[in-house]
Amino acid sequence: MTSRVPTVEDLRVKLCYICREEELYDDRSDPPTPWTHPCKCTLVAHEACLLKWIQTSQGTSARAAVNSLKCPQCGAQYELESKHPVLLKFLATGNKALQQLGRLFTLFGVATFVGVVSSGVYIIMTGYGAWALKKFIGKEMFDLLLTADPANWPYAAYFNLPLMSISLVLSRLQNTSSIPAIIPILLLWPPSPPVKVRQQLLQEYWTNPSNARRLAMSALPAPAIAWPPSPFAVGLFFIPLARNLYRILYAKLALWVLGAKAASLLPSSAMRMRRNVANVRRNGNGGHEEREQQQQQQHAGQGHQNQQGEGVRQVVWQWNIFPLMVRIRANVGEVIQQEGDNNDNAPNGNAQQAQELNGPVVADPNANNANGPEEGNPAVAAAVIEAAEQQIEVNTTSLGRQIGGALLIPAISSWMGSILLRLSWHSGLLRDFLAIKHTPMASGGGTGGGWWNIGSWSSMMGGNAGGVPGGMLLFPSLPPPPLGQWSYSSWEGLTPWDQVKLALKLTLQSAWGGTRTWAESDPVWWRNSIGLGLFVVAKDCLQLLHLWLTKRELETRRVKNRDFAGVDVDELDLIPSWSDRT
Amino acid sequence: MASISSRRLAKELTEIKLEGCPVGIKLVKADDLETWWFTIEVMGDSLYQGEAFTLQFRFDSSYPISAPAVQFVVTDGRQAPIHPHVYSNGHICASILGNEWSPVLSVVAVCVTLQSMLGSCKKKERPVDNDRYVRHAPENPKKTRFHYDDDTV
What we know:
The complex is a heterodimer of chains A (582) and B (153). Chain A has 582 residues and is mainly alpha-helical. Chain A has helices spanning 47-59, 62-68, 86-145, 155-174, 183-188, 196-207, 209-219, 231-258, 269-282, 288-300, 310-319, 324-341, 346-358, 378-393, 399-424, 428-434, 451-454, 457-460, 496-513, 516-519, 524-555, 576-581; strands at residues 13-15, 22-24, 35-36, 45-46. Chain A has 22 helices and four strands. In chain A, the strands form two sheets. A two-stranded antiparallel sheet of chain A has the order 1-2. In chain A, helix 1 (47-59) runs antiparallel to helix 2 (62-68). Chain B has one domain (4-138): Ubiquitin Conjugating Enzyme. Chain B is 25% helix and 15% strand. Chain B has three helices and four strands. In chain B, strand 1 (25-29) and strand 2 form a beta hairpin. The termini of chain B are far apart. Chains A and B meet through helix 1 and helix 2 of A and helix 1 of B.
């Protein structure tokens, strides 16, 4: 008796720690429910309750499953006994493994699909980017920076090229003008060095002492300031400056041609519209207060367009329906800037429209009579322009047109650039302005009096055509060497003064002219930029002309008046004087 | 199995009524076996001196195999305590209400645990992600998967 240990069956009262049911030893349920004491402390439970608890917990989280397998009081591990043959273990493991494999396969399949699709898109975009760059900076420069073989490309190209189409489209959607679209190209590519293959060729040629000496000699007389300016300078300063100037001028031109404000012609006018809707609502009814409001708005340089009535506003919203999303964020900064630009345009239309809205009121002290000569009634003119815009704009709202236009920008630039090149055959001034240096004919070695002679390397090296021997044409397709230390073998041969001059010249050149690779190649990008600018101007003028013609068509519309030929005279109620006359 | 839950709840309720709750805990209402309300106060020296909070228990038919849904009541002028594990919508991030629940625990045991959780609080502040959680929180705190990372408070 001494070593006998009691079991759960020997308890007088059994209390299930799970369901809290009690059972007295002499009051067993019928049929008897099995009890269990699974741990080292005093807790006991119905076996069914405990199994249910364990089973439920195993279905939730891993941690809950672990917790459920030990006693909540003493922490002893429960031991489960079951029919758990090797086969079951094997099947369970196999099932788990298959499940994992399935999951992996799903993941892999999705990843493959996404990968294939996105790499397809990537390849197309990269291809487009390469094409666009080649169009824009010209084949020579392209061959120098990238070459047609992607194996030579620097790593950055694999990011920059595909992003080009995106940046083109985005900047197109943000701005009605296409000029800013090329800024990314100008800023992105100049710093990139020539690809290695080219670099090597150049190096081999220019490390030859005799060639190097020629370089140092010919480099000396070059002017300190290069033309054209570096792509950096153009992209950062010239284009934004030119764009803003152009906008102001164009707005003035449009005002003069059309005789009143044409809402859609001013960039980012839609934005101002939106901002001013609130003002219009507040000013809903005419009156003195409203005029005051407008005068305030004049000072702010805005609020002149919203007075043209609901119709215009709707038109403009429609016009900008696609860029809307992009614009909302992108244009906030620009609007503020634009407000200043349009300040000088504001007073005319504004004051007059105020008058119009207020009905026949005494002359507004702000009314300003500096309108165009044909502007008899500005409000009528504005209404006609509005109608004309409505008529034209029907075709211009498609997203396809915007994106297609954006993607064609490089081709247009290149096309315009080649037109400029062709024109420059006839004008030395244009040739100088475009800094045309290299021609396809130069490789023919033509040393006659043709214009292309001026454009050979000699002019790149500082404009003294005579100073460069014909040997320079040995590598007609190579631009001059980047000035590394290896090309200065004749540096010691120079006088100290010349050394200082050369150093100064190089410093200035790199600041103004950018890297030598760009500064000394045929600046295709430069004439393409100019060409694109001209294209935009031409396009805008065409649009203005279209608008003006439409407006005139609307204004001159008359319904043709006919007599009553063919109508029985007796059916007409005619004035007495008519019968008198006959 | 539904009978297990109701039998056990009935039994717990009888015990509470018979023996009373521990100090600071009062049964407010237990009209049915689905929703019970208690008030708890932290006894002794604590940051919550003089404050009383209302605690709501909701039981489903799988109690006590699964934990009750416990939260502080934040309606009718009642407030949840400001505590790093208590969200302003009354939800409580406590492991014993989640994956450390055990059927050996009872309603009173949960009340006592939460009382001591408040009592040991050293700084009155909301959980760091309170606003984000409250915005997206499900109605039932049991549907939230809390991460019980801090066992010290």
